[in-house]
Amino acid sequence: MAASSTAAVHKLRRLGKGVAFYALILGFCAAVLFPVYWMIVNSIQPLNHGMQFPPPLIPKEISFLPFITLFENFPVARWLVNSLLLAGMTTLIVLALAVLGSFAMTFLRWRGKAAFGLLLLMTQMLPEALVVIPVYAMYRNLGLSDSLPALSLVDAAFILPICIWILKNSFDSIAEEIYEAALIDGCSPLGALVRTLLPLSAPGLVAISVVSFFYAWNEYLFAVTLVTSPDIRPVAVGLASLKVMLDTPIDRVLAAALFFSIFPVIFYLLIQRYIVAGLSAGAVKG
Amino acid sequence: MNKPGNGLLLPRSMSMGRRDFLKRTAVAGLAAALATPALAQNAKIKIPLVSWMWNEPGRGDAWRAILAKFHAEQSDVFIEEAGAPFNEFTNNMLIQSQSGKINGALFHTTPDLVVRLLRGGHLEPLQDIVDKLGIGDKLSAAHDHLRIDGKVHGLDIVTVKFGLLYNSAMFEKAGLGAPASVEEWVETSTALTKSPDQFGIYSPHLMSEPGDFWFILQQWAVMFDGVWADGRKPLVNTAPVIEGMKLFKTMYDKAMPKGTDTATANQMYANGRIGQQLIVSAAVNIWSSSGPDIYPSLRSVVPPGPSGKAITRIHPICVNANASDDEKAAAKAFVEWLYKPENYQELMERCLDVVPPYPEAIRQEYLDKQFWAEGYLAGKSITPLEIMGDYIFFNQEFGNVVMDKFSEVLVADRPVEDAMADAQQELEKASERLFEGFTL
Amino acid sequence: MVCEWDEGRIGRSSRPPGNIERMFQSATAEAVEERARQRRGWNRHHSLPYALVLLIVAYLGVFILFPIAQQFLTSFSNNVVGVDKVTWVGLRNYERLFEDEDFWFAVQVTFTYMAFVVVGAVSLGLLAALLLNRKFRGRNLARSAIAVPWAFPEISAVLVFLWMCNPTFGVMNVFARLIPGIENNLNWLSDPKLAMPLVIALSIWKAFPFTFLVILAALQAIPRETYEAAEVDGANPLQVLRHITIPEITPTLLLMAVLMSIFSFKQFTLIWLTTGGGPYGGITETLVLRIYQTAFRFFDLAYGATLGVSGFVIVLGLTLLFVYAQQRQDRARRR
Lengths: 286, 440, 335
Known about the structure:
Chain A is mostly helical.
């Protein structure tokens, strides 16, 4: 009797803990997602409802007109394709160079490592607004403005230093013996990098892909300066062009923002599985 | 289910507006669509027109139609769309000018940008066009600060002039008439205010929107015949300016949706929840498409106040001095064509503008039909040069000092006199530095 | 293990030309030198890192280092758009800087803002990563949910934030009124006391998903056996956190602190579009806002560059501290 009741208490306590845990997670996510929810609410209900006090927490009526006007009047699909290309190219450039850079910073021995690490961070310390003038001048002299691949080169340059540091951080957690073992097995340094280190640092690779993809997706200043023809406008510039001289159609901008945010989120969802894959790979290493 | 005046009507009628527009421009648009490839191929020279207007709801279509007409009438010059959204337009031009030259042979500019480009030597004189068309002495005074040695370097494509634009339906419902004096204006605006559902008036007042804030704040002093600066002497602590700021503060406390950004205020205006705006004539165009419910009720009066004056600015079209000779000739050919009365009249009508750069540029029959235009036409024009003196070159920096101090009046109830005295002192201190290296 | 990569080819082809000369030297000499090199701790592929790093430095040089150098030069000129003649003015812009009270105030504001955003974003990211590193149903969903703010374009985040904080009908008033003592709507961004905390909150909301993601990746890289050993020892969760988890991810936390410093130092959109540096007196005007205003609104590119260079020097100081800490960590690890 006594034994079973303590077991029941134990079980109850565990249940209570579980409920508290879920409540915590739920509360946390709700707080984080509320602005997003609010954006959805106000882009699908006529704006006038949101301009009451107190505003209704649940939409009073639903209308997709802001979305319809958006799709009918603006080349949304073209903006999307442009941004996907831009973000994709940027991510590839960053992945290639960041792997090499972090590899050199973590596993290779050479002089000037600290200086290199510092140099990388130094590149991040001047606001883009000040860097954009010389970059523009250079691109114009080279005849490179108004091209998405050229824009992706700039975007990649600006996010690469951070990505090298993040990936170095991930490489640091791999025991050096693993790399040395690969060398003893007859691999070249680059061979060891590709065959041994990369599979083990999957979470880090995922992290920097997401970082660079999101950066290129949202980057605005270079895009709006270097791209002038409407045909190759990426999403960020398209979104900004909804706001005009004397007016901002809030509902349409919210709708557009919502729609365009879906893609980075999907990208993250797709790639997130590899964080788990990376976890199991990490388990092998011990 | 939906009550009349419900927000749902807004988007639905917006699409009506679009259909309307489609009807209006179907012929021109179709002609352009069919003719464009052929024209572009046949044209001897292709030049871009760099502008933010392409994204503007009414104006973008108006300019496309005007270009289509131009292309249909001649085949030597073909003009392409180029540019950036309005918010980034000035930055882009600035960055380009710093890298040597501005892109494109033809561009639109804003009142602040054009004076800098003029000083930077980026603008080609357009006096020959004006002389050829015989409008030299008829050109509006707002062009005066664009002259070097008597030669004008930019020609107006939209004059923006202040007026008090009000929603007459809201006034009638409350049994009120248009305000004739300042006292009446405060009373009317207060009477219209039933927070949070309805407000008497809105004027931008956030530091996050410095462009709009300063642009309109200047007019509040002008209503009392205030002048912000004379030559190099700042005058922000003079009685008329202080009076204007006090009126703003009174309205802010009694009749404005405080802390509201311009975008939100525009939505409230379109939904008939703000009674008045002190705003330029060019904005009416926006309401014709995005506020179809209130558009028929819009009326204007001269900004209330003893002076009866309204700031009048121009957004000029300019020819790039650094373009090749052929491009310049092509660009000038377009400007000359545009400035012929019959073409400019069409531009104004498509843009729903009412203040012409020279008298013949507008048709009286068209003007008579603009039921909302009266107050805009009646105001005595005053130019930026007259109210800002030499600070016309430092308009934003000057404005920032004033707005910063004035914001303290608005949100922390500091006395206007103190704040403006501070601003005056700061501006006097800055004056020497600002004008160094600027021979005016 | 069979390695498909031909190590010799890669290793040799990337050697600098200096080594080619050495190939003509006698075999004995080479062997001696090889031994000497090994004693100095150099491996056979010693030229590889230089080739890799040169590639990256050249790339960054074109796009970032060269423009930075140009801005540095501009700060010694009188380049104001429209000035009669652009000339060198020596240190005059820097003299102006030292007398410029607004600049020093902006530096203070910047540090305050940075401190709160760094601490806030790193601790919130850590908290979220610890929570979501546990196994539970819906974990992937929760992880994705938390990444959402990061995926949002800044412009739209600002729009909805302004909408929420509107003093007249913003939904934040609904929540604020739940707090006892608050009966009226607040002025939010127009309130000099609330403006800064709100901007900081928005910045943390936008930034912490990033720290969360990276910290989560670091947590997952901790070998499971490390925890198992602790469990055998009977350590409670807090002890595990303090003695195992935190030490294991300290380099990551350090890195996140630096990246968040950079993020907050450079933050522009989130502040500019919400308060514009106001409500008055530059209460929320960070250095970057000042730079932007000076260069792009007041057309004073030279002084804008001067402000930029000064900010650069300040953040460089902070970063040196980080690199020093990182090096100590590295040395400890390699020992």
